[in-house]
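wait is this the right file?? whatever heres the structure
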């Protein structure tokens, strides 16, 4: 039976959970996820878990945060003066915004706190610092 290996294009169904059992993402209600094994498209631990799987094999893996989205970086939490925001913007805690740096790169940030003079934003990935559990089924090797 064929096994997924580096440079193979594969399709998988998956369900991602936090260690408390909360599901944060799943492909079960949509098309399977397609990617190239070892192509750098996936988090390291997920990519490594699929490498060597047989067609139609199912497995559950726990991926430590350093092989997922890394540790939380407190330097990515910043206060932004309100005058730097568009005048018509009404930020709310929990809201996701798109920030653009001087080089034109865009980053998603989450508003943590709104004050009169500033807002506090967090540019960490929402899953940073979390160990992740994935249930994976390899459904196609291309």
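ok assuming it is, sequence goes like this
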């Amino acid at each position: 039976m064929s096994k997924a290996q580096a440079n193979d294009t594969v399709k998988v169904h998956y369900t991602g959970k936090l260690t408390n059992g909360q599901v944060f993402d799943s492909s079960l209600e949509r098309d399977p996820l397609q990617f190239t094994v070892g192509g750098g498209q996936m988090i390291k631990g997920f990519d490594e878990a699929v490498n060597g799987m047989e067609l139609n094999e199912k497995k559950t893996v726990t991926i430590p945060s350093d092989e997922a989205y890394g540790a939380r970086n407190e330097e990515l939490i910043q206060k932004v003066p309100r005058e730097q925001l568009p005048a018509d913007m009404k930020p709310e805690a929990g809201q996701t915004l798109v920030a653009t740096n001087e080089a034109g790169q865009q980053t998603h940030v989450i508003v943590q706190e709104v004050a009169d003079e500033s807002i506090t934003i967090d540019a960490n990935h929402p899953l940073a610092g979390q160990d992740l559990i994935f249930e994976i089924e390899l459904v196609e090797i291309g």
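The two ends are 14 Å apart (CA to CA). so i think its the right one actually
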